[in-house]
Amino acid sequence: MQEIFWILSNLTLNSLLDIGIVTLLFFGMTFLFRGTQAGALFRGIVVLFLGLFLVAGIFRLQALGWMLTNLLTALVVAVPVIFQPELRRVLEQIGRGGIFFNNPSPEGVREQIIDEIVKAAEKLSERRHGALIVLQRNSNLAEFISTGVAINSDVKAELLLTIFWPKTELHDGAVIVNEHGKIASAASVLPLSASRNLPNPKMGTRHRASLGISEVTDAVCVVVSEESGRVSITNGGRMVTKIEIERLRTVLKAFYGSSYDQNKGNWRSQLLAGWRAVAQRLPIGRQANL
Fold first, then answer.
1. How far is CA 10 from the centre of its chain?
2. How does 160-177 read in b/e, with b if 16+ C-beta sit within 10 Å?
3. Which of 105, 120, 128, 164 could, after both became Cys, cross-link 229 (CB 3.0–4.6 A)?
4. DSSP for 15-36?
5. Which structural domain, as residue segments, surrounds residue 31?
6. Is-above-0.85 flag for pTM?
């Protein structure tokens, strides 16, 4: 503790500037990896190392401090290897300006997307043609989009019916609708769910894939069974089965449309709400009634 107090008492303007730049760099890295599977891994590594360094400094654990110092050198080499796909994707987005000029689909476009998906799901259910449609929200799905055939088209019921026609080359796999409201790819490969608590142990690969992508991202999936024609929705690792067509529109609006936007809000409101939640636990926060 004495070392910490000594560091705080000897802080200079240059030291604060140095700490601020390093903090911004770390924040920028977490921002670039936000919404990817690598983001959680990166945050876990940072939290683990900071926690261990803090313990080693407070209790003066020389062996642990020596090990962590040497591991940092190896980590500098390991990070580009571990995060190579994400780093390449981020650099490509920076080169195209996608990091700074990334406009998600507006509310009106998502309402149209929901209408087209409902129309397609009704026809697919009647014909008992299997389908898997993934709707991107905040998580980055570029790594899954790259496994399929690029399309980059508006979401139309007729196009979805054609893609999932059993005799076409693209009917196996998932259609992914990106953040711009475009069909980014078809026949994309998704991770299968590893959960043992499945709604139905006999469910097929299509349903397992919809659960799998919803477990690792915040995407919403619409699934049509080719055996029964029943429509299901997965979100957050959970599946809602046997959804009637009339109810499908309501559920999609809650998970993907205007209702979801109202619940989500922007990043400023989320940050303020989080601060208020923390402040309410403090005596000062309760007195100030933030």
1. 41
2. bbebbeeeeebbebbbbb
3. 128
4. HHHHHHHHHHHHHHHHHHTTTS
5. 2-96
6. no
Distance of CA 281 to the CA centre of its chain: 29
> From CA 252, how far away is CA 109, in angstroms rounded?
13
19 occurs within a structural domain: yes
Q: In terms of domains, do 245 and 125 share one?
A: yes
Number of domains in the chain: 2
Please give the chain's pLDDT, 290 residues, in tens: 566 666 667 777 887 888 888 888 777 766 666 655 566 677 788 788 889 989 988 888 989 988 988 888 888 788 777 777 667 666 666 665 555 555 556 667 899 999 999 999 999 999 999 999 999 998 889 889 999 999 999 999 999 999 999 999 999 999 999 999 999 999 999 999 877 767 777 788 999 999 999 988 889 999 999 999 999 999 988 999 989 998 999 999 999 986 565 555 444 444 444 444 434 444 433 333 33
Give alpha helix (H) positions in the chain: 2-9, 13-32, 37-58, 62-82, 84-96, 107-127, 142-145, 157-163, 205-216, 245-255, 258-264, 267-279, 283-288
